[in-house]
Amino acid sequence: MDAEDIAEQLDADSRIMDFVYMGVKDKRLADLWTPVKTSFEPSPVYPQAVKVPSISTWSESCLIFSERAHAIFRLMLADYGEFLPLDVQGFTYYIFNNLTDVEPDMSKSWYAAEGVRRVESLVFGADAESKLLFRSSWQGCSACFCNETFKQLWHEYEIEGLQFAEDLLDEGYLSV
Questions:
Q1: What are 127-171's pLDDT values in tens digits?
Q2: How far apart are CA 70 and CA 110, in angstroms?
Q3: Over the stretch 40-64, which tens digit does the pLDDT of each residue have?
Q4: Which of 7, 41, 69, 154 could in theory staple to 65 by disulfide, Cβ–Cβ 3.0 to 4.6 A?
Q5: Alpha-carbon distance 83 to 80, whole Å?
Q6: What is the DSSP letter of 44?
Q7: What is the model's pTM?
Q8: Residue 86 and residue 91: Cα distance in Å, rounded?
Q9: Residue 35 vs residues 6, 20, 72, 87, 137: alpha-carbon distances, Å
Q10: What kind and span of H or E run contains 71?
């Protein structure tokens, strides 16, 4: 499912760029959203996988939540973004449109070189400790970050599907 598919199903071609930049720009989409029909594709990394995880990465800083994971986290994450329903072969899943931006600790974070937008070091300060899920526009909103509380809740409720990384620049993992 891509931005064009979403815009077509929602009859919202004029807002296609909002879907392209979902999770990157501060655009709320719930006002025009109705359940979008889609399906899951096999992962190129795990093509033999048959079980759909409770929470999974989708694109950039957005996540996909199963009905169970949504029921658990819906109220806890209400201040950090919005849940947008999907119809996946008769089952309801939710895109979490991450709308919470946290700036890094600039005394410990920097780009690779002047004028180069490749992050060399990324460290968040105290502001991030109070946010369950967030993104960083300074980093390019190319990942979803979480605090230790989210990670503990994930374990407590026996949620599956995410891999956590302490290295905030480790691609493909939810960073803590």
A1: 999 999 999 887 877 888 999 999 999 999 999 988 888 877 665
A2: 35
A3: 777 676 666 667 789 988 777 889 9
A4: 69
A5: 10
A6: S
A7: 0.84
A8: 8
A9: 10, 18, 20, 6, 28
A10: helix 67-73
